[in-house]
Design brief:
Blueprint lengths: L2 H6 L1 H22 L5 H8 L3 H29 L1 H21 L3 H15 L2 H12 L6 H28 L2 H18 L14 H9 L2 H18 L5 H6 L5 H8 L1 H16 L5 H21 L3 H28 L5 H28 L3 H28 L3
Helix pairs in contact: 2-7, 2-8, 2-9, 3-4, 4-5, 4-6, 4-17, 5-6, 5-7, 5-9, 7-8, 8-9, 8-13, 8-14, 11-16, 11-17, 11-18, 14-16, 15-16, 15-18, 16-17
Length: about 400
C-alpha cells in the first residue's frame, strides 16, 4: 500500500486491511468446494455431478446478487451493506457445514454465494468513495492481490482440511471469519452518499449502449471459458490417483500464476495496447485447452492451470478496465452487470461440465471450452481495437 494512503489516516488504513481480508475470504469461500467435490460426494453417497450443482448454484447466486447489493449499498450505505452481507454469509456458511443432505447443501451454498457477492464489489466501491484518485491504484492492487491469494489458499487449504478433518470444517471456517469481519467493520467510517440513482434509468443507459452490450456478451463467454472448468481441475488431477490434498496443491498454481502475471500486466499496461493484452491472455487460454484436450496427466493440468491464470490476469483485467469506461454515466450499474454475467457464465460452465466430469469425459469438457475460447479471443481483440480507434 502506498505511503500516501498510510499517512492520510490510520483509520482508513485499518479499513483497507479489513477489505483485503474480506476479499481473501470471499475468494477462498468461492473456490474451496473445488478440491472437496470428491470427498463430499463420497460422504453423501452422491455423484460428483450432483455435488457440482452446489458449486454451480453458488456461482449463479454470486453473480445475480451483484446488482442487488449495488442497489442496497446506494441506499443503506457501503459499510452497513457489507456488514449485513457478511453476517448473512456467516449464517449460510454455518448452514453449509451442518447440512444433512445434498439438497440442503445446494440451498446453503446458494445463500452463502449470494451474500459473499457483496464483499469485493463493496470493497472496490468503498475505495473509490474514500481514497483520492491519485493514490487509488495501490489499494485496488492490494484488493486484487488479496483475492488471488484467497484463490490460491482455497485449493490448498480446503483440500488439506477435507483430508485431515472434514469438509464441514472448511465451510465453518469461512463462516466464522465472515462473522468476525462483520463485527470489526463496525469501526469503519461510512462514506457520504448523494441521492441514490434511478435503477431503471441506469439499466436502460447500459443496455442501449452498443459497446456495453459487446463487453457484457464477451464477459459471459469469458466466465464459461476461464472459470467454468476451474471447479473441476482438482477432480481431473485426483482421477490420476493423487490424494485430494495433493490435487488441490497442484491446482493452486492457478492463484499463484494470477499473482505473478498480474504484476506483469501492471508493468506493461502503459506500454501495450489493451487489444494486445486481451490477445495475449486469450492466446494463453487457448493454449491451455489445446494441451488439456491432448492429455490430462497431472503435469499437463498444472501447466494448463498456469496458462489459465495468465489468461485471467491479462484478459479479464483488460475487460474489467474496459467495463469501467463502456458506459461512464452509469458506471456502478455497468460494473455490477459485468460481474453478474461473468459468474453466470461460470455457473453455466459448472452446470454443463458436471455430468461430463462425473463420467470421466474430461476431453469433451476441454474441447467445448476450446471451441468457445477461439471466437471469444478474436471478437474481444478486434472489438477492443475498434473501440480504441474511435477515440476511447
Amino acid at each position: 500500500m502506498s505511503n500516501d494512503v498510510e499517512q492520510s489516516s490510520p483509520a482508513l488504513t485499518g479499513s483497507l486491511r479489513l477489505l483485503q481480508v474480506g476479499a481473501f475470504t470471499s475468494q477462498f469461500d468461492r473456490l474451496m468446494i473445488a478440491p472437496m467435490l470428491v470427498v463430499i460426494a463420497a460422504e453423501m453417497d452422491q455423484s460428483v455431478e450432483a455435488v457440482s450443482v452446489a458449486a454451480a448454484i453458488y456461482l449463479l447466486c454470486y453473480g445475480l446478487a451483484q446488482i442487488g447489493w449495488a442497489m442496497v449499498s446506494d441506499r443503506l450505505g457501503r459499510v452497513r451493506t457489507m456488514r449485513l452481507a457478511l453476517l448473512l454469509a456467516m449464517i449460510g456458511g454455518l448452514a453449509s457445514a451442518a447440512v444433512p443432505d445434498i439438497l440442503w447443501l445446494v440451498v446453503a451454498r446458494g445463500l452463502t454465494g449470494a451474500c459473499f457477492a457483496a464483499a469485493i464489489p463493496g470493497g472496490l466501491v468503498y475505495v473509490g468513495d474514500t481514497v483520492p484518485v491519485k493514490v487509488r491504484q495501490a489499494p485496488l492492487t492490494d484488493l486484487m492481490t488479496a483475492s488471488a491469494i484467497g484463490m490460491t489458499m482455497a485449493t490448498v487449504g480446503a483440500g488439506i482440511i477435507a483430508d485431515f478433518a472434514s469438509w464441514r470444517v472448511a465451510f465453518a471456517l469461512t463462516a466464522v471469519v465472515a462473522g468476525l469481519l462483520s463485527f470489526f467493520m463496525r469501526r469503519m467510517t461510512e462514506p457520504e452518499l448523494g441521492p441514490p440513482p434511478r435503477v431503471w434509468g441506469s439499466l436502460k443507459g447500459v443496455l442501449t449502449n452498443r459497446a456495453a452490450l459487446l463487453v457484457l456478451a464477451l464477459v459471459l463467454a469469458e466466465g464459461l471459458v476461464l472459470l467454468g472448468p476451474l471447479t473441476f481441475l482438482p477432480v481431473v488431477v485426483h482421477s490420476s490417483g493423487l490424494s485430494v490434498t495433493l490435487s488441490g496443491l497442484l491446482t493452486a498454481a492457478y492463484g499463484a500464476s494470477v499473482l505473478v502475471f498480474a504484476r506483469v500486466v501492471k508493468a506493461r499496461t502503459a506500454k501495450v495496447a489493451p487489444a494486445m493484452l486481451i490477445l495475449t491472455g486469450g492466446t494463453m487460454a487457448v493454449l491451455a485447452y489445446v494441451l488439456l484436450v491432448i492429455t490430462h496427466v497431472p503435469a499437463a493440468v498444472v501447466v494448463g492451470t498456469v496458462f489459465l491464470g495468465g489468461g485471467w490476469a491479462f484478459m479479464h483485467s483488460t475487460l474489467q478496465t474496459w467495463a469501467t469506461d463502456m458506459a461512464p454515466g452509469y458506471r456502478a450499474t455497468a460494473i455490477s452487470l459485468f460481474a453478474t454475467l461473468l459468474f453466470t457464465g461460470s455457473a453455466i460452465g459448472a452446470a454443463v461440465f458436471g455430468s461430463l466430469v462425473d463420467s470421466g469425459r474430461f476431453t469433451m469438457m476441454f474441447a467445448i471450452t476450446l471451441a468457445v475460447s477461439v471466437p471469444l479471443v478474436v471478437t474481444a481483440t478486434l472489438g477492443r481495437r475498434r473501440y480504441a480507434t474511435k477515440g476511447h
